[in-house]
Amino acid sequence: LHVFARDEVSFEKLKELLPTGKIYLVPDVVLSMEPVTSKEKKGVILCVRSDVEGILSKNDKEKILKLAKEISTQIVYLDTVDSRCNVENREEFIDYILSEFSKAELIITDRLHGMVLSTLSQTPGVAIKNYNHKITSLYNWIKDEKYVEVVTSVDEIEENETRNLEYIPTQEKIKPQQKPKDKYSKYKEKQPSNPKKYIKTEN
Hints:
Blueprint: E1 2-5, H1 8-17, E2 22-25, E3 44-47, H2 58-71, E4 75-77, H3 90-103, E5 106-109, H4 112-120, E6 125-128, H5 134-142, E7 148-151, H6 159-163, H7 185-188, H8 195-198
Parallel strand pairs: 1-2, 3-4, 3-5, 5-6, 6-7
């Protein structure tokens, strides 16, 4: 039996549960993808949990929104978990999410895959630690890429700190975007446009 773990906590637990198995510690497989980025970056993406596992309060979300508005007038609310994604359209939907991340100038997230997408799209990002080890564990794999910074609370996020996350694209890393501009319009039309929807309920 061969089992692959993407973080040290899971790795150690698996070694206890499967003493005769072959356990390997490896990065998240998604990080093996080729980077997909854009030369022109504009706007802020807020990729923040709204499910029962989210720990950010209504006040936290208001602070995030305020910071985002200070950085850009273009704010997009985009989660990596979306009911619009299904078996039939999942590849196209992932392409859409990655395309949106690649065109942003900053990502603010509390999701592991928000960090992954920030790295793959070579977009500066700030990740807020949550209740488990996932954020910190992933950061150990991607910190040398210098696209994502991790903070322990919303109060630690400062505009000058995020601005220091440099976006330095190289021709070797850039994968040209050749998709029609309106390919993802069916998804964009359904994105929440009202900030109040983002901070409506308190966890």
